[in-house]
Amino acid sequence: MDVDFTPEQGEIRRTLRELLRRRCGPGEVRAAVDSPAGHDPALWTALAEHLGLPGLALPEAYGGVGCSPTELALACEETGRVLAPSPLLATAVLTAPLLLALGTEAQRADLLPRIASGALTAGLAVPPGTALGLTGDNTGDWAGGGRAGGVQARPAAPAARLPAAAPERSWRLYGQVDQVLDGHIAGLLLVAAHIGGFARSRTLLFLVAGDAPGLVRTRQTALDATRPQARIQLRDVEAELLGDGKTDVLLALARTGDTAAAVLACEAVGAADQALARTVEHVRQREQFGRAIGSFQSVKHRLADVYVQVQAARSAAYYAAWAAAAHEERVGGLALAQALEALRTAAAEGIQLHGGIGFTWEHEVHLYFKRAAGDELLFGPVHRLRAHAADAAHLFEDAEVSV
Asked: DSSP assignment, residue 356?
């Protein structure tokens, strides 16, 4: 493993950090989250057209840049640093890899170039932590399992009318999915649904147009306003099967989940690093008893502990991003747990050391704490991420100990 960044990776980080410094300050973030879209369309256009961020990890054959998930993770570290609200996570990290892995050639050729250009945003309509295999085995009934609830699918045409050698492409979906990231504005939804009833149920993925008749999308009030979420209701909605229906969808979701966890870990590290930097800057300026509070030994010790925790989380996140690109062992969930814990600690200490202003809506430090708490609700919590990693590594299985 080469621990040095390549010149290209360094340029991605530098260029993106400079753009976000100019275009995504605290005031711009607040204005973006209060808008109907939940993000700044002009900033998204700049990220897509000038930097190619949505297509960073997509092949050049589909209009992408051709980089690996490592570059995407490093880019998300910079967006996480300023808590930039954008469809990047939902579109490029969660949905595009599944389209690339499972879609037919016609589906990939139609959808991926539009995603890479930023013209099409997408959302993954699944329960994130469960379906992506981050907190446990994803073979459960989270999509309905043949029972009432979740999302169910049936062929649009009776089985007798189907060509003998061709799978049914047109389906009808009904059900509901909560907490769909950017689901209220996504031009394309990738929905997991069960087919076959209770006895022979299978989970497949379906493409649903954002303006499909019968689709009801309601933006939810989220703890973390910088991650807009929506409730998706499908009332007999027309959908297209993704791929040929023969690929192991659950395995593809789990692989996507591990890569997404590595990207999210880098994003959380960027946020934690910025929360710590803001706090250090504040304690250097704020005076008490005639001296800066940052000069007190107790404050130094607290911030030193945060610094060590953030640096350890950064090492874990970088390794997870490298492992995802190199198809090595799956360590994304464990890195995400460490990064979210570091972010929560850095943000909590930041609120405390900012004193009274740290608790006010006008100051931005509370947004970092909400990012940590919101990501735990979506992809965690931390203790379940670690427990699943321990189970996968067989750490606590009973075994004889010879003396």
From this structure: G
Rounded to the nearest 10 degrees, the angle between the axes of helix 332-353 and helix 365-379 is: 150
Residue 339 is encoded by which pair of tokens? 């990064």
Q: How far is CA 402 from CA 101, 155, 194, 399, in A?
A: 46, 58, 48, 10
User: Could you give the CA distance from residue 192 to residue 94 in angstroms, rounded to a whole number?
Assistant: 13
Provide the pLDDT for residue 323.
94
pLDDT for position 2: 56
Q: How far apart are CA 133 and CA 384, in angstroms?
A: 11
Query: pTM for the complete prediction?
Result: 0.92
Mark out the alpha helices in 226-363 (DSSP H runs): 249-285, 297-326, 332-353
Determine contact, residues 369/347, Cβ cutoff 8 Å.
Answer: yes
Q: Can you tell me the distance from the alpha carbon of 188 to that of 209, in angstroms, rounded to the nearest whole number?
A: 5
Question: What are the structure tokens assigned to 354, written together?
Answer: 């900012």
Tokens of 319: 């390794």
Query: What residues of the chain score a pLDDT lower than 70?
Result: 1-3, 144-149, 158-168, 197-200, 398-403
Strands 287-288 and 188-195 turn out to be unpaired
d(CA 41, CA 45): 6
Q: Supply 384's token pair.
A: 């379940």
